[in-house]
């Protein structure tokens, strides 16, 4: 039985990039992905460039690729993009044998992962709503602290 992957997404406001068979543990990639989920494109670039993990480089390339897809294919501006969905799935495990003493061998397991980055374009109306909620939360925080 062949499984066909279907993705229900809003084709008009979203662009995505998919990286498959990245030689990295899914657990280590999730540690970085959790930090950037839901943030704006520009903020994500700053975070990924300053984080000291090896996974940041692969994720940064995917974020750049998704933004290039959004600007070239859909005509979005990079300032109005947010990361609406970022997920990491486990890929295949490459199994090798390392020769050891006396004719024995030890298994080496190289895990891989699949990373999906989905960027969503926020229109001006939605951006204004987000700014209103942020300012409301900021005012509420100030009134509670005084």
TrEMBL record:
UniProt xrefs under InterPro entries: Ribosomal_uL22, Ribosomal_uL22_bac/chlpt-type, Ribosomal_uL22_bac/org-type, Ribosomal_uL22_CS, Ribosomal_uL22_sf
GO biological process, one term: translation
Predominant location category: plastid
Top-level taxon of origin: Eukaryota
GO MF annotation, one: rRNA binding
Family: Belongs to the universal ribosomal protein uL22 family.
NCBIfam families: rplV_bact
Entry-linked PANTHER family: CHLOROPLAST 50S RIBOSOMAL PROTEIN L22-RELATED, LARGE RIBOSOMAL SUBUNIT PROTEIN UL22M
HAMAP family: Ribosomal_uL22_B
The name this protein goes by in its record: Large ribosomal subunit protein uL22c
Source organism (scientific name): Sorbaria arborea
């Amino acid at each position: 039985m062949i499984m066909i992957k279907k993705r229900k997404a809003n084709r008009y406001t979203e662009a995505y990039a998919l990286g498959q068979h990245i030689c990295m543990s899914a657990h280590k990639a999730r540690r970085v992905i959790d930090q950037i989920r839901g943030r704006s494109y520009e903020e994500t670039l700053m975070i990924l460039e300053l984080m000291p993990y090896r996974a940041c480089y692969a994720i940064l390339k995917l974020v750049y690729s998704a933004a290039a897809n959004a600007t070239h294919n859909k005509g979005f501006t990079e300032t109005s993009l947010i990361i609406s969905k970022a997920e990491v799935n486990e890929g295949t495990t490459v199994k090798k044998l390392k020769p050891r003493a006396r004719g024995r061998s030890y298994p080496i397991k190289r895990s891989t992962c699949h990373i999906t980055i989905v960027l969503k374009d926020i229109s001006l109306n939605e951006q204004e709503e987000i700014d209103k909620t942020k300012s409301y939360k900021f005012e509420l925080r100030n009134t509670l602290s005084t």
